[in-house]
Amino acid sequence: MIYTVTFNPSVDYVMHPTTLDMGYTNRSTAEEFYAGGNGINVSTILTELDVDNVAMGLIGGFTGEFVLDTLQAQGINTNFVRLDKGNTRINVKLNGIIMTIINGMGPNIPIAKVDELFRRIDRIQAGSTLVLTGSIPSCLPDDMYDIMMSRFGDRGIRFVVDAPGDLLMNALAAKPFFIKPNNHEVGRIFGANPETPEEVLPYARLLHEKGAQNVLVSCGGYGAALVDEYGQEHTTKCPPCRLVNATGAGDSMVAGFLAALDRGWDYGDALNYASACGSATAASNGLANRETIERFYNSLVHLLEDEASKAGQDPVEPVAHDAGDVENASDSED
Ligand SMILES: O=P(O)(O)OC[C@@]1(O)O[C@H](CO)[C@@H](O)[C@@H]1O
Question: Segment Disordered: which positions (predicted)?
């Protein structure tokens, strides 16, 4: 069973303004509301792909009720600790010609509620996977993932960590099963500017040597790279797509990688599937559905097959062949 933890969930309020003139009233041409937060996004895609999972975390107020109702309507298993005071935050995403994000701070979280969450995590069985992803609210210690991996580390649980900067680096000593920074985060950690999968591989290897078993680095429209638990290096491309929405693309990659491993796929195929999931979300309004993911995966496999046959290498075996038309490679992620 996979458990995701979201300390600071959100209502993602997506607006589509055609202008953004500072100091003036701007108008949106459409709005959407989604249940958001990194762990919640991972759970949403896992559920879409029929992988058993439970979304855990802390939730509060009327916005928290919206998040819970939305998840339950989507058939996602939830186990959230309710806060007595405060509202789950609203994160504003301005999509369209202007991609701008304003994320809320979130409610104050009393330590007693964190203890309650930990008591629930205590009941997770050995062999489970715990996905720790997203920022930690400023009212909580910023080495929270480190604290959790120390506390739950001897339970036979696999940890997945997708977090920025120190939060990620602090977690490496506990040897997480899988981490997924993007090329910009890796660049900030090492004071470099890697863009392509080939350029990030040396830094992925450094993170692997520091303790992470599988290091997947997403590189936006260039694709992604993986150093797997055996030290093998893999790279993949991004299926061609037109960017509609960057929110949740990275979380979709985390979910795609875990879903592929859950199906027993090898690491190279799991990397391809992760890339397809990220691109499928980047090309969708909200998170991708299963049909879009499978279409993007088949499109990617065809692309890799073409490249392999031009280079005289062994072709990549696709799962199915129903690729539709997709246009213009472009991607970035939240
Ligand atoms: O403020 P954080 O926790 O860094 O990021 C939260 C967030 O931007 O990340 C998700 C996309 O990955 C969104 O659903 C959500 O609004």
Answer: 308-334
Contacts of 226 (CB under 8 A, 6+ apart): 204, 214, 215, 216, 217, 233, 234, 235, 236, 267, 268, 270, 271
Q: What is the Cα 309 distance to its own chain's centre? A: 32
Reported as a single tens digit per residue, the pLDDT across 269-322 is 999 999 999 999 999 999 999 999 999 999 999 999 998 888 877 655 544 332
pTM above 0.90, yes or no: yes
Give the β-pairing of 53-59 and 77-82. parallel
- Report the chain's C-alpha Rg in angstroms: 19
Residue nearest to atom 15 of ligand 1 (CA): 37
| ipTM score over 0.90, yes or no | yes
192 CA from centroid of ligand 1 (Å): 24
Buried b (16+ CB within 10 A) or exposed e, 234-249: bbbbbbbbebebbbbb
Spatial CA neighbour of 252 closest among 284, 226, 298 = 284
pLDDT tens figures, 221-233? 999 999 999 999 9
Would you please indicate which residues are annotated as catalytic (active-site) residues?
251
pLDDT tens per residue, range 150-167:
999 888 999 999 988 888
Q: Say how far apart CA 333 and CA 244 lie, in whole Å.
A: 11
CA of 321 to the centre of ligand 1 (A): 33
Counting atoms of ligand 1 from 1, which one is nearest the CA of 34? 14
- Euclidean distance between the first and the last CA atom of the chain, given in angstroms as a whole number: 26
Give the C-alpha separation, 104 to 106, whole Å.
Answer: 6
For the chain, what percent of residues have pLDDT higher than 70?
93
Share in percent of the chain as helix, strand, coil (round to 5): 40, 20, 40
**DSSP single-letter state for residue 328:** -
